[in-house]
Specification:
alpha/beta; Rossmann fold; 2 domains; 8-stranded mixed sheet; 10 helices; 17 strands
Length: 405
């Protein structure tokens, strides 16, 4: 399953910042709404004040919901039952929280369970008159959704990060791995690392990461020594690190795999001859709370979305739903902020103004600044972090917005 961030519960490790980037431009509407909502007073009972009926509704199979002509119809396609239900429900909860926080009464969001059949879910969503689809989660479900939504001229904002799913009016909210790799490689090169190596997973993610590393190193002006594949097992990691060490000296090694695999790979690199190379990672590390407790990996760098606002969101989520959010759920919250902003100039009953999604100024939310391109892919502002004892420290802060010339 390709999703934007691995489905790990709880907030990421605490981060400290060594530098702050100045605001290039404020996305005032979106962030003011969120920050104002964050200051809501919580009663002693621990429950947030009720701001109206739950906005996310599940359709009755025997009753097509078509009578509401005074609100924008938006469909939420997620797995709400089955093996991915916990992830899907966390995203759905986040969209509910966003609607409550923004106090938006112009959007009616209806949830459709893709675990019961994605084709049936999207056909029902289109038949019910929804003008925009948020979801699905799985990249392999995006094609099925696009095949129905496309001819109906209903745009899709998916939570996937699989660039192969973008296009045909399908936009990706997911954090794209190539941007994390490019950010940390460029930062590493600027700090003096010129010769790079890589260890990548033996799957589609690894194949794309290998291409991303190659392109990023060349664009930075560095030298790519070698990239080796590993399937994550101890034997495979050992063999891959030996091959990499034999390829020649290098200043930095990027491990494009999970934090768990990285914690096994770093010691293997050290004992097989790559003694001093700086260890680099991707945003997949951002959901692994055990990295800071692993001594060999301390000092490694990786790039990810900023977390300061996420921590505020996670606390609000815990208060309302009595559990920690999945890290990926922030995409659900931000998708609603995005729709709420666009809805200000969206006439009820008309097609969603999809051209607004590619506004060069972009948007801002829990995961920082982001914008979409016409090919459906997104661009995000990332920060560079260092793994330290029990925490991630910000070495180079993410810009707050895009500078439009």
């Amino acid at each position: 399953m390709n999703i934007a961030i691995a489905a790990t519960a709880g907030a990421p490790q605490a981060r400290t910042s060594k530098s702050q980037s100045p605001f290039a431009r404020l996305f005032a509407l979106i962030m003011v709404v969120f920050l104002a909502a964050c200051s809501t007073v919580v009663p002693k009972g621990g429950q947030m004040p009720d701001k109206g009926p739950p906005p996310v509704e599940s359709p009755d199979p025997g009753n097509v919901v078509m009578g509401d002509n005074d609100r924008h119809r938006v469909a939420l396609l997620l797995p709400l039952t089955g093996p991915d239900a916990e992830v899907g429900q966390s995203i759905a909860n986040a969209t509910t929280l966003a609607l409550l926080d923004t106090r938006n009464v112009s959007i009616r969001m209806t949830s459709y369970d893709t675990a019961l059949g994605v084709d049936a879910a999207v056909r029902k969503a289109v038949a019910d008159g929804n003008k925009l689809i948020l979801g699905p989660l799985r990249s392999d479900d995006v094609v099925a959704v696009a095949n129905v939504a496309g001819p109906a001229k209903v745009p899709v904002i998916s939570f996937s990060n699989d660039i192969g799913a973008a296009g045909r009016n399908v936009f990706l909210m997911g954090h794209l791995p190539n941007q994390s790799i490019d950010r940390v490689v460029k930062y590493s090169f600027a700090q003096g690392q010129k010769r790079f190596g890589g260890i990548v997973s033996k799957d589609v993610y690894g194949q794309r990461a290998s291409s991303n590393i190659t392109n990023s190193v060349r664009a930075a002006g560095g030298t790519l020594v070698s990239i080796q594949e590993s399937d994550g097992t101890a034997a495979s990691i050992e063999a891959a690190t030996k091959r990499l060490a034999a390829a020649g000296a290098m200043d930095a090694v990027l491990i494009a795999d999970s934090g768990r695999v990285a914690m096994t790979t770093v010691p293997a690199l050290r004992r097989n001859g790559v003694k001093t190379a700086k260890i680099l990672g991707t945003d997949r590390w951002n959901v692994d709370n055990s990295l800071g407790a692993n001594v060999p990996i301390r000092g490694a760098w990786f790039a990810a979305v900023p977390d300061a606002t996420y921590r505020q969101y996670a606390e609000k989520y815990r208060v309302r739903f009595a559990r920690a959010p999945m890290r990926i759920s922030s995409l659900g919250y931000d998708s609603v902020l995005l729709v709420a902003r666009v809805a200000q100039n969206w006439k009820i009953g008309t097609a969603f103004p999809v051209a607004r999604l590619t506004d060069a100024d972009g948007f801002s939310g829990i995961d920082g600044a982001f914008r979409f391109f016409t090919n459906g892919q997104s661009e995000r502002m990332l920060e560079v972090l260092e793994v330290q004892a029990g925490k991630y420290a910000t070495l180079d802060a993410a810009p707050k917005s895009f500078i439009v010339k």
